[in-house]
Amino acid sequence: MIKLEDYIPVVGKSVVEELFMLAKHIEGKKIQNINSTAVGGGVAEILTRMIPLLNQMGVQARWDVIKGNEKFFVVTKKFHNGLHGVPVSVSDEEYQWFLEVNRENAEQMQFDDVVFVHDPQPIGLVEKRQQLGKNWIWRCHIDFSKPDKNIWRFLEQYISRYDAAVFSAPAFARRLSIPQVLIAPSIDPLSDKNKELEQSYIDSIFEQYKIDRSMPVVTQISRFDYLKDPVGVIKAYKLVKKHTDLQLVLAGGGATDDPEGPAIMKQVMDEAAGDKNIHVLFLPPGSDLEINALQRGSTIVLQKSLKEGFGLTVSEALWKGKPTIAGAVGGIPLQIAHKYSGILTHSIEGTAHWIKQLINEPEFAQRLGVNGKEHIKNNFLITRHIKDYLLLFVSLFHEGDVITL
Ligand code: UDP
Q1: Do 4-186+381-397 and 199-379 show the same overall fold?
Q2: C-alpha distances out from residue 157 to 91, 126, 260, Å
């Protein structure tokens, strides 16, 4: 098992010592995280890594996943799309079903000292809070910059019952009646997804999937989701292909709370049909080492999202020093300064232009990767994230106190 001390060679001793000192102020407190999927997507990725580390520091952290059927997740995916500006219509019956499933889950749950509710799916659990107190926090991981008005109005009634809301980026902060905190997500440099790998292992993964590395390899790792724009990625590849030989890898799986995956996958297969240089790989949960190898062995990593809460895949690629081209949306510009630590794009044509450019200018591409890695090291590793959460929890239990480390 990874220990907090193992992070010292990456971030330094003082960073790790500070975490232990902060954690003392909430020793014994129980922190409960609640979300809607145990696998797939960024929230599950972060909680899997963070919960064991918090427990090592004496904070009793646990993680519950709400249960829902297909109908519930169809409604919550409509929320997700609508909040991201995709036109959707949610009926009264669907809003009621959403609340019903939240109430059923709340009946079966015990709540801890701090209840940390992630994203809209479990937001209605707050109806069940027993007493007022500073311990229900809503953690929003999605891009909230231009939400559908009706869905926003519905959710706002529940958000306002929390004691605080946490957003990932300043652009998502909204006028709310409760305090708001900005905490960016993070990646774990020691996880299978991000740790250093032997070159022979990386090579074996590319051989296994028959990806021809005599040409540049351009890769996007994502759930098959409309907002990740996999079809746009293929269109950009096709524009580049007219001038340059390359391989495209589109790799990803699904999430148990995302029912749209198979339909998007079909669109991708149709768009990719007949081109043996496009590799569409369906990855089962737990493919972390494979994803790590695909990112490390690629020439360029893409994340051509149309909307993005934060985009952990961008941090993952930059951490590996990869030249990264990503949509200028949501939390991605926090990670990439255009032409300094990566490339930000706004269109299929722009993405194609920059793929060509980086293939033709490998030294410039490499510099982007070096700068990107440094930026992730300084801002988006799990140790910084744990510190922000600990400070938030400390503030809940020590309002007005002067805390000395
Ligand atoms: N991921 C994965 N398997 C997949 C697709 C994605 O493990 O098939 C991981 C990916 O490496 C990243 C996370 O899931 O760690 C996705 O987080 P991100 O913030 O990029 O997007 P989200 O899926 O949460 O919208």
Answers
A1: yes
A2: 17, 10, 27
Which residues are bridge partners to 32 per DSSP? 62, 115
Q: Which helix (H) or strand (E) holds 22?
A: helix 13-24
Instruction: Report the pLDDT value the prediction gives residue 174, as an integer from 0 to 100.
Output: 80
Determine the average pLDDT of the residues in 379-399: 93
Q: Give the span between the Cα atoms of 215 and 241, in whole angstroms.
A: 11
Cβ distance 298 to 316 under 8 Å? Answer: no
Ligand 1, pocket-test mutation among 191, 226, 292, 313, most atoms within 8 A of CB:
313
Q: What is the pLDDT of residues 334-349, one digit of tens each?
A: 999 999 999 999 999 9
* pTM, entire model: 0.94
Interatomic CA distance for residues 341 and 384, integer angstroms: 20
Give me the CATH topology for the region 4-186+381-397: Rossmann fold (3.40.50)
> What angle is formed at CA 304 by the lines to CA 298 and CA 310, rounded to 5 degrees?
100
Domain limits of the chain?
A: 4-186+381-397, 199-379
The CA 312 to ligand 1 mean position distance, Å, reads 7
pLDDT tens figures, 247-303:
999 999 878 888 888 999 999 999 999 999 999 999 998 999 999 999 999 999 999
Instruction: Fill in the DSSP letter of residue 195.
Output: S
- DSSP secondary structure string for all residues of 316-364: HHHHTT--EEEES-TTHHHH--BTTTBEEESSHHHHHHHHHHHHH-HHH
What percent of the chain shows pLDDT beyond 90? Answer: 86
SS3 content of the chain, % helix, strand, coil (to 5): 45, 15, 40
Which residues are within 8 A (CB) of 77 and not within 5 positions of it... i.e. 6 or more apart?
Answer: 257, 258, 259, 260
Report whether 66 contacts 105 (CB < 8 A): yes
Q: What is the pLDDT, as a whole number, of residue 255?
A: 81
Report which DSSP code applies to 401: P
Q: Which protein residues are within 6 Å of ligand 1, measured from CB?
A: 41-42, 45, 193, 221-223, 252-253, 283, 287, 291, 310-313, 316
Structure tokens given for 374: 């440094």
Instruction: Spell out the CATH class of 199-379.
Output: alpha beta
